[in-house]
Amino acid sequence: MNKITVIGAGNGGTSIAAWLSLKGCKVKLYDKFESTLTEIRNAKGILLKGKGIRGFAPIEKATSNIEEALEGSSLIMVVTPAFAHAEIAKLCAPYLVNGQIIILNPGRTGGAIEFHKVATEVNPSASFTIAETQSLIFACRITGPAEATIYEIKRKMPVAAIPTSQTQKVANILSSYFPQIQAAQSVLETSLSNIGAIFHPTPTILNIARIEAKHNFEYYLQGISPCVSKILERLDSERIALASRMGLNVPSAKQWLQEVYGIPIKDSETLYEAIQKQKAYKGILAPKTPDVRYITEDVPMSLVPLSELAKVFEIKTPVMDSIICLANIIHDCDYRKNGRNLKKLGLEKMTPDQIINSFAHITSERKVHNDDKRQAS
After folding, report:
1. pLDDT tens readout for residues 17-38
2. Which single residue of 70, 119, 365, 368 has CA 20 to 30 Å from 7?
3. What is the pTM of this model?
4. What is the CATH number of domain 196-346?
């Protein structure tokens, strides 16, 4: 698995491509925008700085041709905003070959299900494993031409595959490059542990005036004030209630911070106090435009599927629904209609049990499950 394609040359993709190259892999980097690749192509690689391994990382090929990018690669790392997953699935589908493993970094909520559904609709004969991580393993940024810096590395990163029988295999492969990778129960766990749904849309919306005025402030350490953190805690409680109803014990946002960054947090401390302890968040500035992925990605691809699932499982989500409504007003759109609703995930009209099963099984495993049910009836 040392021939790897990284899709997406943004902050995360550039950093992961450089990391894998320095780990000894032959890496090809794809982005649909030629201008994004120019400096890397000219330099023939990426200078990686910050935590972990550092140095100049050769990139075998930087290309905007997806067929060229995928050819010969056993592992495909998709490192893009989640709103691009469906488009990438359509783009990749005709060129996927048996045995390839695709990892969404991260999947947000329902990413692996959406990717598999779209790719197999385009290419029904495609036989591949799709998996998703719970979050992006690095806190990182592009810091110069053909240069990326890793500010922090998460200490724990769950991954899950569809079907679940492939999860341990995927975790074993990834852990050789990222020792922090651990096998999750299923993509239901990675999807409902989506902390981006908590930390991204709400602080952005509640700081929208400062963002429009292009004020410089640290997004997490200043944008999440004591009052904002109270709203985040209530939003997080809705996510946890849904996970519990679906049979999962997922970490709270406060517990997640302690697990991934290793900083002790007392039970008596608020989420605000826990965030203030995080050195990884120091220096991360707020966006300068309301048209930022913290809304355009994390509302339709994180909050919408969580809210849609909550309705099926009869969990009330007034805070979550309010944030979706405010985002619709700010961007003059309908994120519930355009996002990962149940129809787009292929979960519409399913019972709660069938939905839970769909997060663990797909294609042949789902067929066996349905056949068993028919025989039982």
Report:
1. 999 999 999 999 999 999 999 9
2. 365
3. 0.91
4. 1.10.1040.10
133: its two tokens: 């991580």
* Cα–Cα nearest to 50, from 122, 159, 160, 139: 139
Task: Tell me the DSSP string of 184-210.
Answer: -S-HHHHHHT-THHHHSHHHHHHTHHH
What token pair was written down for 191? Answer: 């999807």
Q: In the CATH hierarchy, which fold is given to the domain comprising 3-192?
A: Rossmann fold (3.40.50)
N-to-C CA span, the chain:
44
> Residue 101: what residue type?
I
By the 8 A CB rule, do 91 and 63 touch?
A: no
* Count of residues in the chain: 377
DSSP helix/strand/coil, 40 = helix
Q: Does the active-site annotation cover 298?
A: yes
116 as an active site residue: the answer is no
Find tokens 């991580």 and name the residue: 133
Domain ranges of the chain: 3-192, 196-346
Q: Which of 31, 236, 298, 361 is catalytic?
A: 298
Per-residue pLDDT of 55-110, as tens digits, reads 999 999 999 999 999 999 999 999 999 999 999 999 999 999 989 999 999 999 99
Residue of 31, 200, 236, 361 with catalytic role = 200
